[in-house]
Amino acid sequence: MTFFSIFFALLIEQLKPLRADNPVYAGARALAAKLEGSFNAGQAHHGRLAWALMIAAFCIPVALLYWISIKLGPLAALIVNVGVVYLTLGFRHYSHYFTSIQLALNNGDEATARSLLAEWTKRDTAGMDVSEVARIAVETALVTTHRNVFGVFFWILTPLGPVGAVMYRVAEYLARIWNEPKMAEREEFGRFASQAFYWIDWIPARLTAAAFAVVGNFEDAIYAWRNFAGRWQDEAIGIILSAGGGAMGIRLGAPVETVAEVIPADAAMVDSINIETEAPLGEEASSRALQSTVGLVWRALLLWMLLVLLLSIAKWLG
């Protein structure tokens, strides 16, 4: 059932992508803002309580709905699964930005590419050259693909099923939104959300990196993972980007010691890196790197789907 749930959800999303301003996401944003306004008194334990309430507000109804659907029969359970996966996946949330940036760079329209990247990542892109625009677009695409697709795949495969997928996406959102560097008092309040998502994403991040290695240049991906992942302040992002860059033969990470942050519109923050003396392998990012990224992501998606299919068959036979 899990394989068909993911397959049908991906198919529906390709035909009718879920809008970023849909009522479910708007409700999550409103509730997160309300909980922060009510509980944020500048202390860590307030953040823990607000995080638990937010997770419970979404996971408990999904768990009850899924339990009822199982009692009603396999078809009802499949429908609930497809609905939850459709709402938690975000494969098409950002693809229009990435595709438009790719077309703009291929046409030599650097100004449009910078404008699209600024709209997508919410950062200042003025003065960026083609290589930097391509690099940030690739980095943002890899991280958002992991957070919006592969991480969801992992958690829906666990015994928690759709509840796990909902928990993952809500935890990712809270880790991002409650740690935005806009207000000083958020630091303590959002600390638990960040720590909780670190552990929730610990296995999925490594599985995504492994998938990139398997479907790309395996030796370079593993070498980059082992030697360069620690240069990013965010460990999970360092693993994903170093493995992804190695798999494609592309040098990811800023070429200088201090870099601005890359903040995807629908994913967690990509932290700056600390450059050491040894340079990462691969060539600098260019417009061709975006096409390589598309191929890598689709191959990794097919690998995940094959894994889900095999696990579903094994479960059915067992």
TrEMBL record:
Metabolic or biological pathway: Cofactor biosynthesis; adenosylcobalamin biosynthesis
Keywords: Cell membrane, Cobalamin biosynthesis, Membrane, Transmembrane, Transmembrane helix
Subcellular location: Cell membrane
Highest taxon of source: Bacteria
Transmembrane segments: 49-68, 75-94, 152-171, 296-317
UniProt membrane topology term: Multi-pass membrane protein
Keyword hit for Membrane: yes
Function field: Converts cobyric acid to cobinamide by the addition of aminopropanol on the F carboxylic group.
The family this protein is said to belong to: Belongs to the CobD/CbiB family.
UniProt protein name: Cobalamin biosynthesis protein CobD
Species this chain originates from: Herminiimonas glaciei
